[in-house]
């Protein structure tokens, strides 16, 4: 197994967990759990692969990704009630998945030789779009759009770290680790410490 495939497996596993937790909050049946888990798990990577015109979308080339997501959904269906706060579990699992997925997306684009702007965008897309789809389907405000929280910005910072490490000639594993760690650290700071970006506030019209 290649390093990038391992990152994709990790992102699929944890994002599937967040999708299944969202399904538990929506009180769906087991098919709904599987649908949300799979959508969240492969959504970002699918967009990445389609935009980069890869030979095959990663989960089509290897259906094991879908099987993993379905297995996670099934286990979560029977165990989600044991969690004290499924909302907090979802947010923290999502933070972990975000870091892994951004590293995977950035890595794939780097390996294909894309310029830095595209690498950064593919990292952000891989990390953000699965969760965005999950939240839209569940009729919730997407985490990526919530009140200035560090989410897409955390993903972008992580992707830039991967680009910088590659430019400095660092081993790929160090670049991916730096990407995942920085992305998670910024997202965790937003969750635990309230780190955020300034938000737009309209001014009252002049009289």
From TrEMBL:
<feature type="transmembrane region" description="Helical">
    <location>
        <begin position="6"/>
        <end position="23"/>
    </location>
</feature>
<feature type="domain" description="Glycine transporter">
    <location>
        <begin position="6"/>
        <end position="80"/>
    </location>
</feature>
<feature type="transmembrane region" description="Helical">
    <location>
        <begin position="174"/>
        <end position="197"/>
    </location>
</feature>
<keyword id="KW-0472">Membrane</keyword>
<dbReference type="GO" id="GO:0005886">
    <property type="term" value="C:plasma membrane"/>
</dbReference>
<feature type="transmembrane region" description="Helical">
    <location>
        <begin position="117"/>
        <end position="137"/>
    </location>
</feature>
<dbReference type="Pfam" id="PF03458">
    <property type="entry name" value="Gly_transporter"/>
</dbReference>
<feature type="transmembrane region" description="Helical">
    <location>
        <begin position="63"/>
        <end position="83"/>
    </location>
</feature>
<feature type="transmembrane region" description="Helical">
    <location>
        <begin position="30"/>
        <end position="51"/>
    </location>
</feature>
<feature type="domain" description="Glycine transporter">
    <location>
        <begin position="92"/>
        <end position="164"/>
    </location>
</feature>
<comment type="similarity">
    <text>Belongs to the UPF0126 family.</text>
</comment>
<keyword id="KW-1133">Transmembrane helix</keyword>
<protein>
    <recommendedName>
        <fullName>Glycine transporter domain-containing protein</fullName>
    </recommendedName>
</protein>
<dbReference type="InterPro" id="IPR005115">
    <property type="entry name" value="Gly_transporter"/>
</dbReference>
<feature type="transmembrane region" description="Helical">
    <location>
        <begin position="149"/>
        <end position="168"/>
    </location>
</feature>
<keyword id="KW-0812">Transmembrane</keyword>
<feature type="transmembrane region" description="Helical">
    <location>
        <begin position="95"/>
        <end position="111"/>
    </location>
</feature>
<keyword id="KW-1003">Cell membrane</keyword>
């Amino acid at each position: 197994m290649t390093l990038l495939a391992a990152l994709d497996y990790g992102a699929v596993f944890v994002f599937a967990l967040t999708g299944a937790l969202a399904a538990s909050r929506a009180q769906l049946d087991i098919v709904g759990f599987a649908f949300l888990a799979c959508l969240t798990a492969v959504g970002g990577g699918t967009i990445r692969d389609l935009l980069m015109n890869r030979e095959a979308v990663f989960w089509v080339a290897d259906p094991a990704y879908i099987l993993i997501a379905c297995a996670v959904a099934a286990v979560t269906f029977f165990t989600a009630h044991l969690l004290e706060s499924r909302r907090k579990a979802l947010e923290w699992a999502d933070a972990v998945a975000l870091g892994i997925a951004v590293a995977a997306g950035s890595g794939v684009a780097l390996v294909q030789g894309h310029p830095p702007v595209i690498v950064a965008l593919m990292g952000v897309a891989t990390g953000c779009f699965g969760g965005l789809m999950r939240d839209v389907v569940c009729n919730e405000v997407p985490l990526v759009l919530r009140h200035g929280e560090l989410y897409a910005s955390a993903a972008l910072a992580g992707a830039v770290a991967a680009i910088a490490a590659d430019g400095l000639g660092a081993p790929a594993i160090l670049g991916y680790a730096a990407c995942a760690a920085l992305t998670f650290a910024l997202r965790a700071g937003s969750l635990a410490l309230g780190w955020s970006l300034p938000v737009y506030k309209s001014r009252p019209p002049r009289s």
